[in-house]
Amino acid sequence: MLVGFILLMLCQLLGEILVVVSGLPVPGPVAGMLILLIGLMIHGEVPESLRLPAEGLIRHLSLLFIPAGVGLLVHLERLAQEWWILAISLVVSTLVTLVITAWLMQRLQKKQDGAEVMHGDQ
Amino acid sequence: MEINNFWVYFAARPLFWILVTLTVFQLALWLNKKARGHSLAHPVMISLTLIILLLLLTETDYDTYFEGAQFIHFLLGPATVALAIPLYDHFARIRRMLLPILVSCLVGSVTAVISAVGIAWLLGSSTPMLLSLAPKSVTSPIAIGIAEQIGGYPSLAAGLVLITGVIGCLLAPSVFRILKIQDDSVKGFALGLAAHGFGTAYALQMSMLAGAFAGLAMGLTGVFSSFLVPLVVRLAGLG
């Protein structure tokens, strides 16, 4: 458990350093996630000591959003001014994103499955 | 006067606001269960509403609240790193479906950013608002990082991400019905891409397969977007 936490924070630290050194436009924790993913591929499995704290954190992910989300408080005036723009933009954009992603993924997946079946016949 | 002093003392301790955040969240989980997991009664939305009301009523400013809540906020970093584990777990499946996954994810992420910022820009939104809106389909820990980097308001971005999540869960069933989508991997993927963690939680209620693809889409969208959003912002001349 403790080893897992150390690994997570170590990867985050390495990620933060990598971002500062390379100037990549990625948040440090994301770089840390990629570092951990590469590490896991090299290691070949997820150590139990890492899985426990990692799955605990992921399970309570939505709790971790709250402190930042409460920051909406600071922007209440701004939100009151532009709320209808935000409402239209968020609803339309989310709708369009859902439609395009689902439609494209379904098409591509069918195409690939079809190709695999043909390949299998030969 | 006595009670007032007592309040001032307690409200200033970090412990108090950590405890409030955890307790309100637990209460919200319970309320969500009572509402049979309806997406309008999402525990995060309930918690945000209750805590903001509490802060307004007690005239506590956000900085005081955050002095305590920062200890919860801090865990977002390690939690983001931890997303590598589900990605690793589903790696075999990802590799087989690599091309459809990558193409849909790239197109979906671009659509999410450009449509949100484009519509708000057409309707005359202010630049800081546009910059906070840009990462709205990205899972919050990454969205907060992106907003910080491009000059939006991280806390506003986090809030918009949460609202997007709720909207995505409300719209998804109708979209899937109209497009006649039956494959759970496709449903999950679209949910995770458009509505990040909220969509993933919703997909997990459908099936484990949908949940796995949602988690994957959420992770990939996060990684793509952290490159893509700063690029789009720069190209649009906003950054």
The first-to-last residue Cα distance of chain B is 50 Å
How many structural units, i.e. domains of chain A? 2
What fraction strand of chain B? Answer: under 5%
Tally of domains of chain B: 2
In round numbers, the mean pLDDT of chain A is 87
- Give me the number of helical elements of chain B: 13
Question: Number of helical runs of chain A?
Answer: 6
Q: How far apart, in Å, are the first and last alpha carbons of chain A?
A: 51 Å
Low-pLDDT stretches of chain B are none
Label the overall shape of chain B: globular
Q: What Rg of chain A do the Cα atoms give?
A: 21 Å
Helicity of chain A, as a percent range: over 70%
Largest interface: A-B, 70 and 105 residues
Order of helices and strands of chain B: HHHHHHHHHHHHH
**Residue ranges of chain A: pLDDT <50 for 5 or more in a row?**
none
Oligomer: heterodimer
Radius of gyration of chain B: 19 Å
What is the count of β-strands of chain B? Answer: 0
Characterise the protein shown here.
The complex is a heterodimer of chains A (122) and B (239). With 122 residues, chain A is mainly α. In chain A, 84% of the residues lie in helices and 0% in strands. Chain A is built from six helices and no strands. The longest helix of chain A has 46 residues. Helices cover 83% and strands 0% of the residues of chain B. The longest helix of chain B has 28 residues. At the A-B interface, helix 1, helix 2, helix 3, helix 4 and helix 5 of A face helix 2, helix 3, helix 4, helix 5 and helix 6 of B.
